[in-house]
Every structure is written in C-alpha cells, then in structure tokens.
Amino acid sequence: METKILCVGDVVGPGAVDFVSARLKSLRNSLNADCVILNGENAASGNGLDIASANALLNAGADIVTGGNHTWKRREIREYLAVSERVIRPANYPPGTPGFGYTFTGCGGFRLLVINLLGLVYMDPMDCPFRAADAILRREKGNFDLCVVDFHAEATSEKAALAYYLDGRVSAVFGTHTHVATADERILPKGTGFITDIGMTGPADSILGIRSDIIVDKFTRRLPVKFDTAQGGIVLCGILLTLDCETGLCTAIERVRAE
Ligand SMILES: [Fe+2]
User: Fold this and answer.
1) 156 closest CA partner among 143, 136, 133, 173
2) pTM, whole model, 2 decimals?
3) pLDDT digits (tens, 9 = 90+) for 197-212
4) Residue-range domain boundaries for the chain
C-alpha cells in the first residue's frame, strides 16, 4: 500500500498565505495527497510566523507546518508553539526552547512522524542535527510507520550528508531555507527520498520573495536594508512523495510547481 505526501516550500508573506488558502485544497486533491507538510517560517509580513498566518495555513489544508531560523521573529508565536502539535520548530534548538521539534499525524491510515531540523553551516550555532535525529528516532522507535524530515539548512553538502546519514531509516529528507528549488530529487541507495531544496511559495518577481530593488541595493551599497515582501503573482514550489507504507521507504519523489 502506498501513500502520497505533498511538501510545500517556505511560504513567504501574506500574498503567499492567501495563495495557499485559495489553492492548496484543490492542489492536494488533484495530486491525491493524503497529507500536506508546509514550511511556514516566513509567512508573516517581513518574515517570521504570526498566529493568524499559522492558523490560516492549517485551515488552508496543511496538516503540519514546519519552521526554521526565522520562526521566532514574532514574539507571539512562542506561546502558540508551546502548545501546538501541528506547528513545529526545529528540534535541535537548546533544551527549554518553546515548542516541539517533531510531531505525529495520520497519513492514509498510517502513523507519520514529521521531524524539523536546522543546519549548522553558515547558520547560528545549534545542537547537532545528526545527533538530534538519532535521539528522536531512538525515542520514538515503534511509534511510527513513515518519517519525513524537513532539514532547514543553507549548505547543499550538509543537507545531502544528513539524508545519507538517515538513508534507510526515514522515508524522506527534504531541504528548505534557500527558497530556490533544486533539480536533484532522487531515491538514495537504501530507499530514502531526498531533494536538496524544495524551493519557496512566494512572489515570482522577487529575490527569494523580497523586492529585488532592496536586495540589489544591499549588494551594491552594503548598507543595512529593511526587507519588504515583493508583490505580484505567486508561485508555489514543493514535492510530492510516494511512500510504501509497509517498508516506510520512498518509491517516488517529484517536484511540484503551481502558479
Ligand atoms: Fe530560513
């Protein structure tokens, strides 16, 4: 028996939240997805995740919303994450950080474990994501049939290294954070699906979702700038995973794009 999971890349700004609200349910139906995992760390205006956006993304049809390094920008999200089982933040923050780094949801009648991790290369110091993954898999052994990891990281090598480290132990590892979809989706030798980055859901005419003139200014003048989400048509990027529910491994991984 197989199940399909749609994973949606970083939702950037209120326009993208509206796009997801309008389109996710029909996309989910047309792809026959039993479950949707969506990265929401930049959903609030000016990045971060606010409570209204988190609720909108869940109401739009996301089963689980994952986070990243920008999750915390809106202070209000701390209390929300502390009790939410459907909106999570990376698991390798230090002990005592509000919220959960992994969670469970039903997927086609099977138990899906979703883990969120943060990379260390070119990012703030965190606990080791490799050890954090090991600890979760050890602790939850026997409690899940399928496991998907959102690895929110900058370096392509670190993302591939975690995927190979977990090959055969989890269903899939997908990367987020760079906002640019990579063309390297594949199934690793022991059966784990992997892609370096699934891309973003945000304004197409932009640099990573931000107004291009602001980013060009930042690079040409080297002065501090305030990020503003770009306007215009939204493009949704993600992947569709097909998983074997008996083995817990991946049988297909395809890129998804909707505009
Ligand atoms: Fe990020």
Assistant:
1) 173
2) 0.97
3) 999 999 999 999 999 9
4) 2-203+234-258
